[in-house]
Predict the 3D structure of the following.
Amino acid sequence: MERGSKFYAGKANTLYEVLDDSGDVLPNVIEMECTDRISAGDGDKKDVVEGKGYANNLVSTLLFKKFAAAGVPTHFISEGTTPASKFVRWAVMIPLEVIGRDFAAGSFCRRYGVEKGRAFDPVLVEFTYKNDALHDPLITDDAAVQLGLVTKDDVDKIYVYMDVINKVASDFFAELGLTLVDFKVEFGYNEGTGELMLCDEFSQDTCRLWDADGNSVDKDLFREGKSGKAVSDVYQKLVSMLEAME
Ligand code: UDP
């Protein structure tokens, strides 16, 4: 497989067509490259974090392989043509962000007035409706089904997958001495087979990780005003830990 033309540049990922050996565009595969771009607050705050694309791609790739091994279908196919990219199955995305929480943080604390760090077991699952005009509001699973965003069967599968994803990712980060606090994932349908699969990413941009002293090792640093350089150093620390493990 070879990289073809760029067809989409999103907030954190750039997407490319993929060519087969004869140079024809493969219909159900794309190459997804994580970039060093970072944004927060509905895109109001933007910067570049050197090495972030590589860091996020590394974490996502390691985790997606583990999720698949644990029985969660994913869009991941193989490593891509650069260290920050991968080949993935093209998906029709479900317009939901699915959030898993092991400990209270961020919007959950603001919404319910609970203290940061309160533990949840089993993982607490929430859905938000991906809609820029509405600012991604929280949505119940029933509303998501009734609005035709996802089927009831797939909601049931998503709850099962969220348990597995949470367990696999929590164990993975625990080995590095980090606590997985919460995370956001997205699901889509395989365009060829219609199968529900985990898509997008699982990285320091889309989860909260606390070290043994409760310090953030994730995008919260940027949300809280740290410079791109400071954020880069922290993302790099996780890369070094992962590379040391290999
Ligand atoms: N999250 C994300 N993208 C979003 C919103 C949230 O990746 O657009 C992640 C976030 O990094 C955290 C989890 O989802 O790990 C829960 O975020 P929360 O609902 O607490 O919102 P926040 O406080 O980040 O606005």
Remarks:
- The radius of gyration is 18 Å.
- Residues 97, 99, 105-108, 182-184, 206-208, 219 surround uridine-5'-diphosphate (CB under 6 Å).
